[in-house]
Design a protein that fits this description.
Elements: H1 2-40, E1 44-45, E2 51-60, E3 63-75, E4 82-89, E5 92-98, E6 101-104
Antiparallel strand pairs: 1-3, 2-3, 3-4, 4-5, 5-6
């Protein structure tokens, strides 16, 4: 019996280590995406880091996918700290919120709105299709 419980404990430990490595890799991808988006929009990514803020299920092409939300801080002029968020499914950016920019990728079957709200500047999604999401 002792060998069986040791094996179960070892498998549980290996599962936790594997999950931690996968989440760490996802966070590294999110840091790279945040860095690229800040560079694209002329912002400075502060602390060069992101933090996982939430998980949610999202339906894409009829499949439920796990979407991760990461929060980070940016500076517009070097003297301020403003919040930013990005949402990712797998390795694909699905949403972005910066101090002056809000990007929501089109949901399947819905038309994007043509008028921005208040200070929101609409952006075009990156080229590619939803089938690239793993």
């Amino acid at each position: 019996m002792s060998k069986l419980s040791d094996l179960i404990l070892l498998l549980a430990l290996m599962t936790l280590v594997g999950l931690w490595l996968k989440l760490n890799r996802s966070r590294e991808l999110a840091v790279g995406e945040a860095r690229a988006q800040c560079h694209r929009h002329g912002l400075q990514l502060l602390d060069e880091t992101v933090g996982l803020r939430g998980l949610r299920l999202r339906r894409i092409d009829g499949q439920r996918m796990l979407e991760r939300c990461y929060a980070f801080e940016v500076s517009i002029d070097g003297d301020d700290r403003e919040p930013g968020r990005l949402w990712m499914v797998g390795n694909v950016l699905t949403g972005l919120s910066l101090p002056t920019i809000e990007l929501q990728l089109k949901e399947p079957g819905k038309q994007p709105s043509s008028t921005p709200a208040n200070n929101v500047v609409p952006l075009r999604p990156r080229l590619g299709n939803d089938k690239d999401i793993h």
